[in-house]
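Listing 4. Sequential folding, example run.
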Amino acid sequence: MTNHHVEAVVEGLAFPEAPRWHDGALYFSDFYTHLVHRLGPTGVLHTVAEVPGQPSGLGFAPDGALLIASMVDRRVYRLAGGELAEIADLRDVAPYHINDLIVDREGRAYVGNFGSNLGVDAIVSTDLIRVDPDRAVSIAAEDLIFPNGMVITPDGHTLLIAETFAYRITAFDVTVDGALNNRREWARFGDGPAVDLADALASGNVLPDGMALDAGGRVWVADAYGSGALLVAAGGQVLDAIEIGDLTVFGVALGGHDRRTLYMCAGPPLGGVDPATVRQGSVFACRVSVQGSGSP
């Protein structure tokens, strides 16, 4: 494993998630403050949107507009010109909170969801939802276990998605019209799925969350069980690890002027203190050897 130098670039947050590098800046959501932030090249933090329903996944449309998953009310919003507008209501297709999303080069958004009330109910399978540029809503894939972080390869032909509580990363072929076919396992970190959150945490398995693809075809994976990010190859081999201490990394992005800075959004471990009331969230940065690739 490489000896990495990690530094905190933002502190005092609630629960930062869904980091995205876009147009020379880092964007991320902070769940419990209901804010979406932009961290510019000078290190100054700006708030770009307030989302009462709790912002989560972020993605940029081809025209540069920011799409935002609003967790609790299960809606997708579009931010353009400083104005926030609803583009999709997913309450009929998402049984509980929505979470991460990714936008492909055609402007289609793929949106994950919890499936059930995590921490209270049993973990159940759910669907990955697609929102097209014309705002049409459809089911992109069925029977996923907590569909979460996603990446799309540079050619646009493959989507990888973390099934957090099944301890695996799943791959799909993306057709020209945005359909997802040829489902297959890309990496596995343990036998699953978990029965509930307590079962998942007791397993000691990697819980894959947010992901970032590098130019070597590997993914940096946020481990929602551990205390850092893992570099994973197809098949599940862990090639490198970056530890950040007592916090847990839930989202990662490769950015910077050469896309060789790994940004890690971190907060209190699952099942620990309440991040809605305790401000322990931080964004960390670390230089890595291989630049980012694909989307986001």
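-- end of first protein; second protein begins --
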Amino acid sequence: MISLILDIVSSAAILFILSAGLLIIFGVMNILNFAHAGLLSVGAYVALTVTQLGLSPWLAIPLSFAAGFFVGAFIEQTVMRWIYARSLDAILAAWGLGLIIVQLITITYGRQIQFVETPLSGAISVFGETYSLYRLFLVGLALLIGMSLTFLLKGTRLGLNTRAVIMNDNLAQALGINSALVRFLSFSIGSAIAAMAGALITPLSAVNPNMGFPWLVSCFMIVLLSGSSLVSLALSAVILGGAQVLVSTFISPVAGGMTIVVLAAIILRIRPEGLVND
């Protein structure tokens, strides 16, 4: 029973980390960044490069964040900033950019499945149950990311400006807020978190150029359920991640793989506005 609870908590933490970057971009620009899958792969291959160079696997976390920020900043400045007003074009452009990123990774690293070194190996006893130390580390990291983003949005000038842009972009500009800079930073930070998430999940799965796409569907449904709320994102991750673990454990892993999409669709049918709002 303890092991099952820990699986639910750690799965929810992983989903929260994977979805946080997508939520930041969606909340500010109301655009689902389908380049998210490519950004997850960017982070994963930063972690792989760190392993291949024989460096400390802990370096993969800040390096993937920096790489994601750079890639996100480049995408925002060269493509996305010109098409924010055209939501469908922005979504299609993001999808295309994600495919381009994956192809560039394939050309550079090849299609073969590879593995990275985990920064934290071993297990620890929790209430008499032996559990992965790395998965517990991800739970703590998810809490840290959530608190950091909450502080950024509610305790800083950037957060104040960001919330103003979310509520009323035209009014924010009339008040002298540089909405273009807010969008640039939001897109870049969201991309950085996505790449960092890609690096963080590599010790739990194999690395290949397309590894981000299976996660994209789950992140997409969780963010749709959350709107622009971090509280709702955490709640969605717990509900959907918990349901996936339970179905995978007691029914079958195949059915568990479909749980997030099916359950999210049912909840959105009942509550189109999502779960809760900040």
